[in-house]
Amino acid sequence: MNRTEFIITTAIILLAAFALGWFSYWLMHRFTRVAGGDMAEMDRLAQSLHEAEEVRDQAILYLEQREAELVNQIAQTEAELRAAMEGLRDVRHEAEEMRAYIERINANT
pTM for the full model? Predict the structure, then answer.
């Protein structure tokens, strides 16, 4: 292959590479292009997404507050239950003492 054939071959390869690159750019531009109407819809969707995120954040905040209230109520209920169980245990002990006292009095008479 002489110098002229080498230059022509190289020129054809570079031209083909350029054409392939330009064609692929055109295809990408054609498929990824956003029209004016699409931009308005994308803005509307972005606004809807933003509003949905705000509602989600408010819901999460409400749930966290509600959970804290319920945990507090459970703690109070458990404390009341422990107090009631202790009171019941004391009353049973006193009732047992009273039965024993009554039996002793009945046994003595």
Answer: 0.50
Task: Round to whole Å and give the CA distance between 54 and 80.
Answer: 39
Q: Which residues of 19-40 are buried (b: 16+ CB within 10 A; e: fewer)?
A: eeeeeeeeeeeeeeeeeeeeee
Angle at 85 between CA 93 and CA 67, to 5 degrees: 175
CA 104 to chain CA centroid, nearest Å: 68
Residue 24 per-residue DSSP state: H
Of the candidates 38, 42, 39, which has an alpha carbon nearest to the alpha carbon of residue 50?
42
pLDDT along the chain (109 residues), means of 10: 90 96 90 69 90 97 97 97 96 94 87
Are the C-beta atoms of 34 and 42 separated by less than 8 Å? yes
Cα–Cα distance, 76 to 74 (Å, whole number): 5
